[in-house]
From TrEMBL:
The chain holds residues 553 to 842 of 1342 of the full protein. This is Rho guanine nucleotide exchange factor 10. May play a role in developmental myelination of peripheral nerves.
Length: 290
């Protein structure tokens, strides 16, 4: 057996001891003289096992930090990551989406986000992980795009789509505005607006078609293609389009993370901010980050 295997033996025995004590407790009647010592021994072993797991997790995190520092290969980053109290919480492959002022997608870029206990880093990987797990291969290299202290990162959540299920079937309006979490006061943030604008247009058209339908009902004569049945088809078609657009918005928001990040100071020395939008590979990944 290797030295590593011998060193792992005591750690591997702890779960076996815990299972043994649990089994002994099940077969020790209440009031028996051995029951209290067994309970105390079990509690002590469980506490020790938790401490061992925590130490192993910290060691794995420190090892991961060293891998990241080596992969970045930048003097600034090596200094940043050399802080002994800094550790990696998680890292994931994401797709950064860049929008124009109308909310239309201009381009997308593959990124790797590293969430440390006090810093958020964004990098471009030269080779993407096949499984998208975010684990850093030993030979992988990254180009650092930016790093921001975690206390300066603001998370912006899309509010409209979350409320759709609780609102009426065809709500009067969807503003597409953002619900801002811990954001600076007196600032309004708009999300990728194309889907929201499409939805507003559909709702506007539905309102007009409903008015037209009411007018058609009041017609005295009969006219081809201008009757209540045709008007109802228009209404039903728009309602289906609205439901489809709402689902598109919900699907987009399930995997979208929008961050407000500090930029360079302007000419007058005031701080500026920019927005970065990332799409995770799954809704579960987004929930883990948020």
């Amino acid at each position: 057996m290797t030295l590593y295997g011998l060193m792992m033996k005591p750690i591997q025995r702890f779960p076996q001891f815990i299972l043994l004590l649990q089994d002994m407790l099940k077969n020790t009647p209440a009031g028996h003289a051995d029951r209290l010592p067994l309970q105390m021994a079990l509690a002590e072993l469980e506490t020790l096992a938790e401490k061992l797991n925590e130490k192993k997790r910290e060691a794995d995190q420190r090892c991961e930090i060293r891998h990241i520092a080596k992969a970045m290969n930048e003097r600034y980053l090596n200094k940043l990551l050399s802080n002994g109290s800094r550790y990696l919480i998680r890292s994931d492959d994401m797709v950064e989406t860049v929008y124009n002022e109308r909310g239309e997608v201009i381009k997308t870029k593959e990124r790797r986000l590293f969430l440390l206990n006090d810093v958020l880093m964004c990098a471009t990987a030269n080779v993407r992980c096949p499984d998208g797990s975010g684990n850093v291969p030993l030979d992988q290299k990254f180009l650092l795009k930016w790093s921001v202290p975690l206390s300066f990162v603001e998370v912006l959540e899309f509010g409209s789509s979350e409320d759709m299920a609780d609102s009426s079937r065809y709500p009067a309006s969807h503003s597409g505005e953002k619900v801002v979490i811990n954001a600076k006061p007196n600032k309004l943030y708009m999300g990728p607006g194309q889907l929201y604008q499409d939805l507003q247009n559909l709702i506007h058209d539905l309102s007009l078609v409903n008015q037209i339908s009411s007018l058609i009902h009041s017609l005295k004569g009969n006219y081809q293609n201008v009757n209540s049945a045709v008007a109802q088809d228009w209404v039903s078609g728009l309602q289906r389009l609205i439901l489809k657009k709402e689902e598109e918005i919900r699907a987009a928001d399930r995997c979208r993370i929008q961050l407000q990040l500090p930029g360079k100071h302007d000419k007058s020395g005031r701080p500026t901010y920019f927005s970065a939008v990332f799409n995770t590979l799954s809704p579960a990944t987004k929930q883990s980050w948020i």
